[in-house]
Amino acid sequence: MKALSGIRILDLSRLLPGPYCSMVLADFGAEVIKVEEPKTGDYSRTFPPFKSGFGYWHLQLNRNKKSIAIDLKSEIGRKAFLKMVRKSDVVLESYRPGVLKRLGIDYETASRLNPKIVYCSITGYGKKGPLVHQPDHDIGYLGLTGVLSMSGEKNGMPAIPGVLMADMNAALMAGMSILMAVRYAEKSGSGQEIDISLYNTALTLMPGAASLYFGSGFVAERGNNWLTGAYANYNIYKTKDDLYLAVGCLEKKFWTNLCVAIQREDLINAIDDEKGHEHVKAGLTAIFKTRTQKEWTELLGGKDTCVEPVLTFDEALAAEQTTANDMVLDIQDEDIGEYKQMGFAMKLSETPGRINKRAPRLGEDTEVVLREIGFSNEEISKLQEK
Q1: Annotation says 136 is catalytic
Q2: Exactly one of 71, 136, 137, 333 is catalytic; which is it?
């Protein structure tokens, strides 16, 4: 038995946050039915590179799912969806607020048919406020919430993070919320509506900045606090070969270990005075330029300094630690051959994540799913004509 066996999710979402959320739930046993538009489906199906006609983005984010293609703007499409709602636990969607109400498949409609239904909406700005209908992407949410103002070098331009921070964290927030709401529905018999916004999610990613501001009025920006480059012992330094080291020895014991390893015991107490950090940074900048990244990694390895090389993504995937944690999986599929997938970040001893099914072709499971909910062959044929 899998951890989430018996939970059925109707996934109306596209692109990244929703599909990533439902992928994680599907990896641990939830039945995820991806409800897609006929002919086009999820836009991410067209993202290169491709393997035997499948986009790798689609292969990664939609593994372990089923796909049905129905037109939710048609009467028979709505009928099919609402019939599935009666036999499902969760609806996950990422439309702009109001769209599903106009289609007649919103939470209020769904809850009348199934009082236990959990209806999770992932939106840009939530369901109220002046920006509720405004379109945006990750960089916009990070810009408006102050995250970008803390990224980059002091007195320089804000830097674009290499990870879609609002998207990815909203996906995980949605997953946790869904499981909480499903548990409540099982105990109480009542479902509920969940509102996950990328804007709100981004705001909550900065508890340190919030603590500083609420406690003292200090506004965290790039280069003016320990998280954004003000401290010598939490910073990035260039090596002799123009590569980089990430220094994260915040605790005094780790900082002491580093100072001993580089034979600069005179710097051990220098970080106790915040005014001295610029001097220490200048010293470390000069020191780290005397050896290559590899030389520093070998010299500091095993000495508890919290200093690590800044690797590229391909180097990270090839790392021994990545292999030890089974974080790159080799998949064999009879239709598309061999391909790779990222492994499971969550390691459960009794109910581990598994890849049981490759990402589906558009509408691959339409007939099977509709028959399961009682659609006749005539109704299925009529629906597929749309």
Answers
A1: no
A2: 137
Distances in Å between the Cα of 223 and the Cα atoms of 123, 151, 166, 374 are 32, 9, 22, 61
What is the 8-class DSSP label of residue 10?
E
User: Mean pLDDT across the stretch 126-135?
Assistant: 94
| Each residue's pLDDT tens digit, 139-154 | 999 999 999 999 999 9
Tokens of 366: 């339409």
**pTM for the model:** 0.94
Q: Is the dihedral of CA 253, 152, 140, 62 positive or negative?
A: negative
* Residue of 27, 106, 138, 167 marked active site: 167
Backbone angles phi, psi at 275, to 5 degrees: -70, -20
Residue 11 is a catalytic residue? no
Per DSSP, 367 falls in state H
* DSSP-assigned beta bridge partners for residue 121: 93, 195
